[in-house]
């Protein structure tokens, strides 16, 4: 699911591809709620779409599940600096 979400986010060019990415990552948080990476990926997509508030929430969930997630820490610092 994560690969599909990233394909929609960065590879697809059709109208609505970004929304399809967000929906894919959101669904993945329901399918695998214990995996920190799904929240990290959803946070990235939210950040790319300009949804700062929800991106922060997803990165916080990611870090709650895996406090050592360096990418999540870096992204959260970047978002909090905006």
Output the keywords.
82 residues; mainly alpha; Serine Threonine Protein Phosphatase 5, Tetratricopeptide repeat; globular
In short:
This protein is mainly α and 82 residues long. It contains 5 helices and no strands. It has a single domain (2-81), classed as Serine Threonine Protein Phosphatase 5, Tetratricopeptide repeat (Alpha Horseshoe).
Note down, in words, how this protein is organized.
The chain is built from 5 helices and no strands. The chain is globular.
The class by helix and strand makeup works out as mainly alpha
Q: Could you list the spans in which at least 5 consecutive residues all have pLDDT below 50?
A: none
Strand percent estimate = under 5%
Q: What value does the Rg take, in angstroms? A: 12 Å
Distance between the termini: 29 Å
**CATH fold name:** Serine Threonine Protein Phosphatase 5, Tetratricopeptide repeat
Q: Averaged pLDDT, please?
A: 96
Please give the CATH class.
Mainly Alpha
Q: Count up the helices.
A: 5
Number of E strands: 0
* Total discrete domains: 1
Task: Specify the overall morphology.
Answer: globular
Helix content: over 70%
CATH architecture: Alpha Horseshoe
N-to-C series of helices and strands: HHHHH
- CATH superfamily, by name, is Tetratricopeptide repeat domain
Largest sheet: none
SSE layout and pairing:
Blueprint: H1 2-11, H2 17-31, H3 36-48, H4 52-65, H5 70-81
């Amino acid at each position: 699911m994560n690969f599909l979400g990233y394909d929609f986010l960065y590879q697809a060019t059709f109208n609505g591809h970004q929304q399809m990415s967000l929906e894919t990552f959101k669904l993945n948080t329901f399918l695998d709620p214990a995996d920190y990476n799904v929240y990290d990926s959803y946070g990235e997509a939210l950040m790319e779409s300009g949804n700062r508030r929800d991106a922060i929430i997803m990165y916080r969930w990611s870090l709650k599940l895996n406090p050592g997630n360096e990418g999540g820490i870096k992204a959260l610092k970047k978002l909090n600096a905006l």
